Amino acid sequence: MRKYETFFIIDPDLPDEVNAVIDGKVKTVVTSNGGSILSYVPWGKKKLAYTVKKRNRGHYVLMEYAGGPELVAELERNMRLDERVLKFITVLLDERFDPAKEEARKAAAEAAAAAAAAPALTEAEEAADKVALSEADAEEMSSGESGDADE
Predict the structure, then answer these.
(1) Is residue 148 part of a domain?
(2) Residue 151: what pLDDT?
(3) Are residues 81 and 136 in the same domain?
(4) Which of 19, 30, 61, 142 could share a disulfide with 35, CB 3.0–4.6 Å?
């Protein structure tokens, strides 16, 4: 299995319902040809670098997926036939792709993100923690002194 990235631009004048239909069609082509979608990120409407099919703007979408070369051929064939897709490009990201390793990598990244996104303490909570720590230190010192005397 190989890992690919396809970047495509959809006609920006289409309503959201039609964009959803195109999204569904692209995803169906990938899954029905034995592939699996790793990420599907619509970037929104942006200005094109140059005019494409008399359009100055486009709805950008980036999709990463895993599959074989026949999947890419079928996906690109469908995009060529669809008038609503202005432009597309497919890039091979990884020649030998293991979905299990990708899942493990994603799980580790999500865990790291969750740890980084843990809520920070407010100033009042920090002050309360400092007071509690200083009280605990005072108790340790007093119990430590009495413990030394017993020995």
Answers:
(1) no
(2) 46
(3) no
(4) 30
Give me the pLDDT at residue 33, please: 92
Q: Spell out the residues 6+ positions from residue 67 whose beta carbon is closer than 8 angstroms to its own.
A: 1, 2, 4, 30, 33, 34, 35, 36
- Longest CA span, the chain: 91
Domain that holds residue 129: 104-142
Number of domains within the chain: 2
Q: What is the pTM of this model?
A: 0.66
Chain position carrying tokens 């007071």: 131
Domain-located, residue 113: yes
Quick one: 80 and 133 in the same domain? no
- pLDDT at res. 70: 93
Distances (CA, A) of 141 to 29, 73, 87, 134, 144: 70, 74, 72, 10, 5
What are the average pLDDT values for consecutive 10-residue runs of the chain, which has 151 residues? 93 91 93 91 92 92 92 94 94 84 78 74 64 63 56 46
Measured distance CA(82)–CA(67) in Å, rounded: 22
Q: For the packed helices 69-81 and 16-32, what is the interaxial angle rounded to 10 degrees?
A: 150
Residues whose CB falls within 8 Å of the CB of residue 96, separated by 6 or more in sequence, listed in order = 1, 2
